[in-house]
Design brief:
- The chain is mostly helical and 257 residues long.
- It has one domain.
- The chain is 88% helix and 0% strand.
- The longest helix is centred in the middle third of the chain and has 39 residues.
- It is elongated and about 70 Å long.
- It starts with a helix and ends with a helix.
Amino acid sequence: MTGVLRDIYFTLFEFVRTFGALQLFFLRLLMYSPGIFVRRFGLVVGQVYNAGALSLVIIMICGFFVGGVLGLQGFSNLAKFNAEDSVGAVAALALVKELGPVITALLFAGRAGTALASEIGLMRATDQLSAMEMMAINPIRRVVVPRFLGGIIAMPFLAAIFSAVGLLGAHVVCVSLLGVDVGSFWQQMQQSVELADIQEGIIKSVVFGFAASLLAVWEGYNAIPTAEGVGRATTRTVVITAIVVLIFDFMITAVAL
């Protein structure tokens, strides 16, 4: 019994210590962020390209087929109530408010998040970050902050593209394959989707971008400087980001209702 209590104590202690260190790390990123836009804006643009533009292919492919699945499922279920013309509204609300931001964040963590964590972790393993410190260069300001900001900026755009391509997939499936009237499809969508729904999706994408980017750079920066340590940091990035995104999604949805 004593051993179990000791393990619980040390686990909670380590969690509180890590959470506190993460908050201090986040504050340092926020402190250095304004100067990056003035002095090294090109670095941020490059990281937006790496995190956003290079993720477009997987985002668009997944968005199209997710929209197609929503069209199929929505049509098959709404047809039971003779309301198949409302499938456009169902697909739009699902994509804009939930599936767009959430799935984009998960795909972002799997593609861009792992790239950020492994890149920074490799710099740690090869002593590049230590070399920057010896040359009086702040590695957080020079390496971490541009990647953090690039992920935050790219995430809302990726979520918007995912939702737009998803609506295209739903349109192709419902209108072209299942014979739903195109006018009813888009009219029902326009009447059902309100500005508050779009704002909720934007807020979620921004929050998820903060969380995914912060966890990626944190895990990479604090990775154990070995090949195994970098691999573990990359794995933790995906797992923890997925859990945090789903928790934040529930919290934001509960507040918005």
